[in-house]
Amino acid sequence: MTAGADAPHIGLVVEGAGDKGALPILLRSYLHTRAEYRDIFGKPVPAHGRDKALKATGLEGYVATAAARPGCRAVLVVLDGEGDCVAHLGPSLLARTVDVGKPVVVALADRDFESWLYASAETLELDLVFDSGKSGQGAIKDALKPRKYVKPTWQPRLTARMDFELARTRNHSLERFLCKLDQLVSLVN
Fold first, then answer.
1. Is 33 domain-assigned?
2. What is the mean pLDDT of the chain?
3. Phi/psi at 14 (nearest 5 deg)?
4. Contact 48, 181 (CB under 8 A)
């Protein structure tokens, strides 16, 4: 569920089709663990790839689209870090959004969204055991064989199986993201 057309909400900007389906599940599931049951998220605006979000004026346009929707109180951007230094990339992306006129939070999954999922490996029902030295996406793809890992299909499914308390202890970028989310929720009354 998303917030009503004019209802106060947090706008979302996501990287692609998999995140468009999975991020709302992650957000709602996490908030339910905090006894927060309101529909406070807008429909995600997909960037159709990290490269399109990172190009000049790319992110700015996606954030402006989310922020312009009636009722939007703040915008949450979630992208993959993909090996870039998230401590540098995040602030540089955030600086590009200052003209939007609403609070914006940029959260980068260090390395990728699958790393957040993999941090809860044992709960994903794929017979995985967490190993901090493994790539989340690689481990998930291997566990699914001979089935193919298709992000729009598997990301939402696996996200629904996450244990947040377990995952946040294993993945620092997820922990930072959840702390930022807790702060954003207070902006929606």
1. yes
2. 95
3. -125, 165
4. no
C-beta neighbour count of 173 within 10 angstroms:
21
Q: Which residue segment(s) compose the domain that 38 sits in? A: 9-185
Let me know: does 171 contact 115? Beta carbons within 8 Å: yes
SS3 state of residue 77: strand
Report yes or no on 15 lying in a domain.
yes
Check: CB of residue 159 under 8 Å from CB of residue 29: yes
Percent of the chain with pLDDT over 70: 99
* pLDDT (tens digit per residue) in 141-182: 999 999 999 999 999 999 999 999 999 999 999 999 999 999
Question: What is the b/e burial string over 115-143, where b = at least 16 CB atoms within 10 angstroms of the residue's CB?
Answer: bbbbbbbebbebebebeeebebbebbeeb
Please name the residues in contact with 150: beta carbons below 8 A apart, sequence gap of 6 or more. none
Mean pLDDT of all residues in 50-73: 96
User: Is 3 among the domain residues?
Assistant: no
In a domain, 150, yes or no: yes
Asked whether 155 and 117 are in contact (CB, 8 A), the reply is yes
Nearest Cα residue to 117 out of 27, 189, 20, 26: 26
**How many structural domains are present in the chain?**
1
- How far is it, in rounded angstroms, from Cα 109 to Cα 189? 27
For the chain, what percent of residues have pLDDT higher than 90?
94
For 111, the 3-state DSSP assignment is: coil
